[in-house]
Amino acid sequence: MSVLWEKSETWRWIVRKSRDSKPFFLAFATICGVVPGVIGYCVMQFTNSRNPELEAQLRSNARPDSLMMGKVNQERLAEFLGELQRKEDTNDRYVAALRGETLTRKPYERIQPIPKQSNMEAKEQKK
Question: Which stretches does the entry tag as region Disordered (predicted)?
Answer without folding.
Answer: 107-127
